[in-house]
Design brief:
186 residues; mainly alpha; Lysozyme; 2 domains; two-stranded antiparallel ribbon; 4 strands; elongated; Lysozyme-like_dom_sf; Endolysin_autolysin; lysozyme activity; hydrolase; EC 3.2.1.17
Length: 186
């Protein structure tokens, strides 16, 4: 039984006259897609992991944010949580931290953008990993994606190339790569 049918069967007795209206169907389909994405555990592919690694790089000693010269301190492959100047880790620990961090953003993207192809999902996880869940949530990119305007959404990546109000060459390249990956699945 599909998730949408299960939801419809559950809601039908609660509807007026025990009948669902035609305009209930798109709402149920959207809810089903969100439910499936959250509970079927969509995960980033190796192409998405490789994209993140390419732009984050691997640094085994803590370093300051390039835009601010300080916070947030980063280590490994883009890990920022609880990092202090002078911290050192192994490559194995960097990989472990990456997998933990990516998991958080996989769940965020599945919740915020429930209907994605694998390349779109990978690009959005990389984007959220870099800019944060809150920025993805409030972005025009997300709004356009969820409205089905994939070309418009792809065009939004390039707008996110600043850190501390400065255009960053690395972010410009990363956004171009994310947009290219996103478009490949549209």
């Amino acid at each position: 039984m599909t998730t949408a049918k299960t939801i419809a069967d559950t809601l039908r007795p609660l509807a007026p006259g025990a009948k669902l209206a035609a305009d209930d169907v798109p709402l149920i389909d959207k809810l089903a897609a969100q439910w499936d994405a959250r509970f079927q555990g969509k995960v980033i592919s190796q192409a998405g992991i490789d994209l993140i690694k390419r732009f984050e790089g691997l640094r085994l000693k803590a370093y300051p944010d390039p835009a601010t010269g300080g916070e947030p301190w980063t280590i490994g492959i883009g890990h920022t949580g609880g990092v202090r100047p002078g911290d050192v880790i192994t490559e194995a620990r960097a990989e472990q931290l990456l997998r933990q961090d990516v998991g958080r953003f996989e769940r965020a993207v599945a919740r915020l953008c429930p209907v994605t192809t694998q390349p779109q999902f990978d690009a959005l996880v990389s984007f959220a990993f870099n800019v944060g869940e809150g920025n993805l949530e409030s972005s025009t990119l997300r709004k356009l994606h969820n409205a089905g305007d994939y070309a418009g959404a792809a065009g939004q990546f390039e707008r996110w190339n600043r850190a501390a109000r400065k255009i960053m060459t690395g972010l410009t390249r990363r956004r171009a790569a994310e947009a290219q990956l996103y478009r490949s699945g549209s």
